[in-house]
Amino acid sequence: MNFLPIFLNIRNQPGLVVGGGIIAARKIELLLRAQAIVTVIAPQLTEELTEWANEGRIIHQADNFELTDLHQYRVVIAATNDKATNEQVSTLAQEQGIPVNVVDQPHLCTFIMPSIIDRSPVQIAVSTGGASPVLARLLRTRLESVIPANYGKLAEFVASFRDKVKQHLSFNERRRFWEKVLQGSIAESLLTGHKDAATKALENLLANSSTTSEQGEVYLVGGGPGDPDLLTFRALRLMQQADVVLYDRLVSDGVLNLVRFEAERIYVGKAPTNHVVPQYEINNLLIKLAKQGKRVLRLKGGDPFLFGRGGEEIETLMDEGIPFQVVPGVTAAIGSSAYAGIPLTHRDHAQSCMFVTGHLKDGTMNLNWTALSQPNQTVVVYMGLRGLPIIAQNLIKHGMPPNKPAALIQKATTPEQQVLIGTVETLPDIVTKADIKLSSIIIIGDVVKLREKLDWFTTS
Fold first, then answer.
1. Which CATH architecture has domain 333-454?
2. Residue 270 catalytic?
């Protein structure tokens, strides 16, 4: 370890920045955010820094840096494009024992300016010791995606109860208590903006901490159409907290691999002709596991409320008094159309879009064929692979032109994505010859004609 990671308190302390350019401005901004009193030595300033000087936010000395007594400063940063000046600043600061940073010259630094994730009072600093600032920024970006913006409020919330908890619980009891708060429904309530509910729940937990068993919870999460990069921040956070996950056939391996490694995995997927676990058993299993005090992740492909039977599951949870959260996901239709280069609506081709399920029952399906056959709209069919010939026949029978463009997309948003293009009349034969076995999305409408122009997935 070449540098000792520390956080330096420079509130109301004097800091010096030598240089008045764009790079210097970034460092000055960080010092100001840390509430330092900043002096800038530079012959000229950027327009932004000039405004800050006029507003009194910084002290400007319009000179070149000279042999100056630096003892009055608590931190010094050199950010000029002159190598000799930077070396001179570094040497003088080190001689006087003042922490010094020289931008992009680690060998002249006694401290490094890291990439920062700021959720004040929570702060995370990422550094490569000056080896690769770009890599540090990339790592920061990844961390930003999994750390909720409200974590600062969560830290302040915890701080407001620390003394009270300390008075009631022993050291080991406090540790377990805060683990329950920070990894359970109380933290989630606060992070989603329900501070009053979080406060009441924490007070109840503290009052009954010695007698009440931990309450379980269910997370109903949309896993999206397949690409793990399409998960929401909140989905990923809950996936990392779960004790057990019940997942569907349509959840991709890439998404499932992001669930907490230690979580128990239970497959409850369904195929059109084979329901491994009936829906009522899934509902009962959610209740059973939650009543055992577990955090249960119900992970579904796409969005849980669009042909995902999420409504049925939360009805059961509400009847049993089980707390739950619902996290929307990118729907299969939206993901499939976007990655196939087929917009679902377009001013010149479709002013509306209809979502239907093509699931067969006794070899037939009861759909409003007249409504589906109207012009200037897009029809998206879920679970329509087996019933595609019946769908095509009925649409044509009820007035849809046989040459209406149609597409079938399988394994959407993944590297194995396949898109078959035809018309309402020809697509069933095209799909049969391609021997498509997996569940797919079918899109019917004039917007399909745009794919040749807008297919970024295979060209990017």
1. 2-Layer Sandwich (3.30)
2. yes
